[in-house]
Design goal:
Order of helices and strands: EEEEEEEEEEEEE
Number of helices: 0
Helix content: under 10%
Shape: globular
Oligomer: single chain
Strand content: over 45%
Strand order of the largest sheet: 4-5-11-7-8
Distance between the termini: 56 Å
Length: about 180
């Protein structure tokens, strides 16, 4: 039997104002899931040229009002490609809202090179009804031009008991020289 729990979130500043009581999906074994997962909108970069050092990649999503749970963690994983990118977790930043955006604190940003996953934990979690932009930075853009893909998975509260939901694939294309103009 699935039980609906009540959770309350007090936000940070205007962009993360108080959210009313919302129900979440909680399974008998304690696992927690979204009623409706976050919606992945896009991935982009202002620097699509190969070999640019420390560029910023943006991952943009929305946590719908009907999510039933706040977004606690996000995982970004590079899918197999011509070249492996290595992220600099200390350069990871997150912003909520549309205009103006408000920077929010992160509990952790950890990159695991063995499985190419950047794990980002929000502190506090991102409440339903929020827009989120996460900035991540690899050591450099790839040396080989082409399309690079990144899988995005969202997790509600619940730590190890949280059920992740794959919410989309970010696509970035890199060009040599002025080919992108």
């Amino acid at each position: 039997m699935i039980k609906r729990t009540k959770s309350f979130f007090v936000g940070v500043g205007l962009a993360l104002s108080a959210v009313p009581w919302v129900g979440a999906v909680e399974f008998p074994d304690g696992r927690v899931a979204f009623d409706q997962p976050p919606i992945f909108a896009e991935a982009n970069t202002r620097y699509p040229q190969v070999l640019i050092p420390s560029p910023i990649y943006n991952f943009i999503l929305r946590v719908p009002e009907t999510a039933g749970e706040s977004l606690a963690r996000l995982e970004i994983q590079q899918l197999p490609a011509l070249e492996t990118l290595y992220f600099q977790p200390q350069r990871t930043r997150a912003f909520v809202g549309t205009q103006p955006r408000q920077r929010i604190p992160l509990a952790a940003a950890v990159f695991d090179p063995s499985d190419q996953v950047l794990r980002i934990t929000f502190d506090p979690p991102i409440p339903p009804g929020s827009y989120l932009r996460v900035e991540v930075s690899p050591v450099r853009n790839p040396q080989w031009e082409g399309v690079y893909l990144f899988g995005v998975t969202a997790f509600p509260r619940g730590g190890d008991r949280a059920i992740g939901q794959y919410i989309g694939t970010g696509r970035l294309q890199f060009y040599r020289g002025s080919d992108f103009l």
